[in-house]
Amino acid sequence: MLEKLKRRLPDAGADQEALLTDLLEDAGKWICAYTCREQVPEALEGAQVALAAVLYNRMGMEGETGRDEGGVNRTAQLMPEDVACQLRPWRRIRTVQA
């Protein structure tokens, strides 16, 4: 997966391998939390790479939901809709016992 992420992020330098690995791990944890699973299903590895790329590209925007600079408006979603669409069918229902 690391090699796939590197191909998606050509601007990421060779010295950023540890960062990219961390982002893949964070994306995996996010997917597990969203789907209520213990580990990322193999079928969702592409979504994990895509989410890690989003996390990389959003670095420096922590805490922001939008920015307007020189007529250019950028907004950030918590999770991009295309990734969420891939994850929704994999969600498990969580039950709570009283």
> What order do the strands of the largest sheet run in, or round the barrel if closed?
1-2
Residues in β-strands, percent: 5-15%
Terminal Cα separation, in Å? 41 Å
Query: How many domain modules?
Result: 1
Key terms:
mainly alpha, 8% strand, single chain, two-stranded antiparallel sheet
In short:
Helices cover 47% and strands 8% of the residues.
Overview of the structural elements:
This protein has 98 residues and is mainly alpha-helical. The protein has one domain. It is built from 4 helices and 2 strands. The protein has helices spanning 2-8, 17-35, 45-57, 81-87; strands at residues 66-69, 72-75. Strands 1-2 form a two-stranded antiparallel sheet. A hairpin with a 2-residue loop joins strand 1 (66-69) and strand 2 (72-75). Helix 1 (2-8) crosses helix 3. It is globular and about 50 Å long. The relative contact order is 0.16. The model has no long low-confidence stretch (mean pLDDT 89).
Summarize the helices and strands and which ones pair or pack.
Blueprint: H1 2-8, H2 17-35, H3 45-57, E1 66-69, E2 72-75, H4 81-87
Antiparallel strand pairs: 1-2
Helix pairs in contact: 1-3, 2-3
